[in-house]
User: Which sequence fits this backbone?
């Protein structure tokens, strides 16, 4: 019997260390070869959203099933930035999902900095599932402002993995059209950051056979429980606090911000010389056309009342941006909703850029009208 003190001898530590290294190596190499990929079944409901890591690393079959669930229910995928996140009193897609006059349901992928280019890899990696998919993308003019118009490395690495983007199979013609965010990664990351992200991607793929495939084979119910589904039952829209009303107890309608807001200095004017966000939007439109994605673009509002009070000289830049973006959508001959008139609506915002639940209500009305018009044509 080996004594504990013997284990800590240098010669024995070397032997045991080598043994453990060999065992670990066998597990790492044998796992992907011996453990079959898990292709589990999911509930017959539309998936509301998908885990950020599944999106980031293009996990299968999760991403494919997410897109398929939307298509099979004739639903919509809503894409947006922080304005399309959770709002306590309800956001526009909450109202759409619970309106008894609207049949389709609305899944959501949103987050700060999650502009349209972030979704290009998902669509290109899932061409069959994307073909015919109905999408709504809210164009937030805030991302043309001076401090957000450039590609943000933090946002890129939050939502995407460098290797996942680099490994996309594209023809030379496609690469010329859909260069974002592949080029963005190349430009913003140094060689050491690329190496670290590549190692992260490789190790995660090796671990996946144990932490996902084997785990779900042993307990398939865990797989389905990982998804968030849109409930079949709808709740009354009147359950949302002050539905369709301006919350004057909290919102200063002169400035169009909540009374407690103290970060007015975060506002920035539009950078009218930087074409990064416009190029990104063009690339996204090109992807939608190439893959047959039925995308409706929302020309999102900006907080006109706040700008008029805080920095009136910046208003003309936002107005020109709205007009130029609208002309781009018309030139590209895409389906769009003009929500620019919400910019001046009292009570529509809570700060210098994010809409309120009342602003979401105004967006909901426009989308509902657009959907009904599309169904009747």
Assistant:
């Amino acid at each position: 019997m080996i004594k504990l003190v013997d284990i800590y001898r240098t010669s024995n530590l070397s032997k045991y260390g080598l043994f453990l290294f060999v065992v670990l190596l066998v597990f790492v190499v044998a796992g992907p070869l011996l453990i079959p990929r898990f292709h589990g079944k999911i509930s017959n409901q539309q998936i509301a959203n998908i885990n950020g890591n599944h999106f980031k690393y293009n996990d299968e079959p999760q991403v494919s099933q997410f897109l398929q669930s939307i298509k099979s229910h004739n639903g919509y995928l809503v894409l947006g930035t922080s304005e399309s996140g959770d709002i306590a009193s309800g956001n526009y897609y909450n109202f759409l999902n619970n309106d008894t006059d609207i049949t389709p349901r609305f899944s959501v992928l949103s987050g700060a900095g999650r502009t349209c280019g972030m979704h290009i890899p998902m669509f290109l990696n899932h061409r069959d599932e994307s073909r015919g998919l109905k999408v709504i993308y809210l164009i937030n003019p805030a991302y043309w402002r001076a401090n957000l118009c450039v590609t943000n490395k933090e946002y890129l690495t939050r939502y995407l993995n460098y290797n996942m983007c680099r490994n996309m199979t594209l023809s030379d013609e496609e690469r010329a059209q859909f260069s974002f965010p592949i080029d963005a990664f190349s430009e913003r990351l140094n060689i050491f950051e690329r190496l670290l992200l590549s190692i992260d991607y490789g190790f995660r793929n090796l671990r996946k056979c144990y932490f996902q495939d084997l785990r779900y084979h042993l307990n398939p119910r865990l797989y389905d429980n990982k998804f968030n589904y849109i409930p079949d039952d709808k709740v009354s829209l009147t359950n949302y606090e002050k539905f369709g009303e301006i919350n004057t107890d909290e919102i200063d309608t002169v400035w169009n911000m909540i009374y407690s807001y103290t970060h007015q200095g975060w506002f920035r004017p539009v950078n009218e010389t930087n074409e990064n966000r416009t190029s990104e939007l063009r690339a996204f439109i090109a992807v939608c056309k190439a893959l047959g994605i039925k995308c409706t673009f929302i020309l999102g509002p900006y907080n006109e009342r706040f700008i008029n009070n805080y920095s009136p000289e910046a208003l003309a830049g936002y107005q020109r941006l709205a007009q130029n973006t609208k002309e781009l959508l018309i030139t590209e001959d895409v389906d769009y909703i003009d929500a620019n008139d919400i910019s001046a609506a009292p009570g529509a915002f809570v700060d210098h850029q994010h809409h309120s639940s009342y602003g979401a209500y105004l967006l909901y009305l426009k989308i509902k009208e657009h959907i009904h018009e599309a169904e009747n044509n």
Q: What stands out?
A: The domain at 36-376 is CATH 3.40.50.1110 (Rossmann fold). Residues 191-218 form the longest helix (28 residues).
